[in-house]
């Protein structure tokens, strides 16, 4: 599947945003057992997220911006939760419409020409909803929704986009979750064989 560069960046942003949600934190990630941490719990975390993803035009952020981005995150989670385009399409449409999309070409900050879908002066939440919502729309239109996944490790809920050729990726990271489960399965087989 050929995904344009801008769409890939937007999908990475969606995944990172989803993985800030408290329910996506795997055990051992630093939080006390039973107390998931929201990776977007305050304005400082939102500024950090915006900087990490080079979100342009972010001015001064306030509590209303934080709540709005948390709401967008919840709406993205609903889209990831279904592989049915009949359910996802209205969710994506509502998200994009609420953001007041205004497609325009831009070449800023050393990036070549690309399309921004958010209106000039849009809030960070509308920016994310418009640009990332359009990336999710691309996935739905391409019939590739099954690529929007959650890690299959029983103790991990991280989101990821499966870009493998045959759509066979099962874990958010083969180096952590995948390797950990393969090692556990190997040890279980050896223990069973030893009797």
From TrEMBL:
Start and end residues of each Zinc finger CGNR domain: 147-190
UniProt superkingdom: Bacteria
Protein name, entry field: Zinc finger CGNR domain-containing protein
The organism of origin for this protein: Streptomyces atratus
């Amino acid at each position: 599947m050929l995904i344009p560069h801008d769409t890939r960046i937007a999908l990475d942003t969606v995944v990172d945003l989803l993985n800030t949600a408290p329910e996506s934190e795997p055990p051992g990630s630093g939080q006390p057992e039973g107390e998931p941490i929201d990776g977007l719990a305050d304005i400082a975390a939102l500024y950090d997220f915006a900087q990490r993803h080079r979100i342009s035009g972010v001015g001064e952020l306030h509590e209303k911006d934080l709540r709005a981005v948390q709401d967008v995150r919840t709406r993205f989670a609903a889209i990831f939760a279904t592989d049915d385009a009949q359910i996802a399409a209205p969710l994506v449409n509502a998200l994009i419409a609420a953001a007041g999309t205004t497609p325009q070409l831009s070449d800023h900050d050393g990036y070549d020409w690309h399309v921004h879908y958010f209106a000039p002066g849009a809030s960070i939440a509308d920016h994310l909803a418009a640009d990332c919502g359009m990336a999710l729309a691309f996935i739905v239109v391409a019939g590739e929704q099954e690529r929007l996944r959650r890690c299959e490790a029983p103790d991990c809920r991280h989101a990821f986009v499966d870009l493998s050729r045959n759509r066979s990726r099962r874990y958010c990271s083969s180096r952590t979750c995948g390797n950990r489960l393969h090692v556990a399965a190997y040890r279980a087989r050896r223990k069973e064989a030893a009797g």
